[in-house]
Amino acid sequence: MKTITEQKPFEEIGESLGEAKRVYLIGCGTCATMCATGGKSEVLKMKDRLDEIGKRVTGWMVIPTACDDLTREAVTENAEAIGQAEALLVMTCAFGVQTVARYTDKPVYPALNTLFIGKEDAPAHFSEVCIQCGNCVLGRTAGICPLTACPKGLLNGPCGGYKHGMCEVDPNRECAWVEIYNRLKRMDQLEKLSVLQPLKDHSKMAHPRHMSTGR
Ligand code: SF4
Ligand code: SF4
Q1: φ, ψ at 159 (rounded to 5°)
Q2: Which of 67, 71, 126, 208 has the fewest C-beta atoms under 10 angstroms from its C-beta?
Q3: Is it the case that residue 24 has pLDDT exceeding 90?
Q4: How many domains does the chain have?
Q5: CA dist., res. 95 & res. 100, Å (int)
Q6: Pocket lining: 145 vs ligand 1, CB cutoff 6 Å
Q7: Is the CB of 169 under 6 A from ligand 2?
Q8: In this structure, what CATH number is given to the domain that contains residue 47?
Q9: Residue 81 above 80 pLDDT?
Q10: Ligand nearest to the CA of 168
Q11: Ligand 1: centre distance to CA 131 (Å)
Q12: Predicted pLDDT of residue 60
């Protein structure tokens, strides 16, 4: 699973940098590289675009995994060039941005929007697979997540808008509940559909979420 990101509009990036003339750029070698939003080539392109609007890039790096604790060492190793900058522009997911922000007192700005946790289901195409709802129902839905596969996140069967088995919101894809039904049928588990699923317990998604493993 990867964190899926998109690049913010360049105008928004320029606005967040504001008066800062000297900028240090940080990319990520994992998810943002895979999404082509914050790998080496995107970082270098961003450097050129910042040059064009009169910003000076004091340095740049692509941290192997920006959300990892090794980010601290990367920031320390590049302290001189970072020290010359008035702001850091971080081309990673929001987790990476927050990690970088922990290790510097400079203003840190995100260059990307963090969209969802997903998987690559076709080359360069990513799909959301789980919203971490805190109460997984996959055991009752044949391993298909109704919260991400159904655009309405319905927990107890289809909305009635589906046509010829296809979703009314996205007619190019099969209705998630038709998929769930067919899979349960193949597994001889259709009786699972007669059990009403309770309303989602949104307290499980109250922020910030914490968990102790007891290790
Ligand atoms: S039901 Fe869906 S969103 Fe909830 S934990 Fe399971 S896969 Fe994730
Ligand atoms: S047609 Fe199916 S997948 Fe589409 S919104 Fe309705 S229940 Fe969800």
Answers
A1: -80, -15
A2: 208
A3: yes
A4: 2
A5: 9
A6: yes
A7: yes
A8: 3.40.50.2300
A9: yes
A10: 2
A11: 6
A12: 98
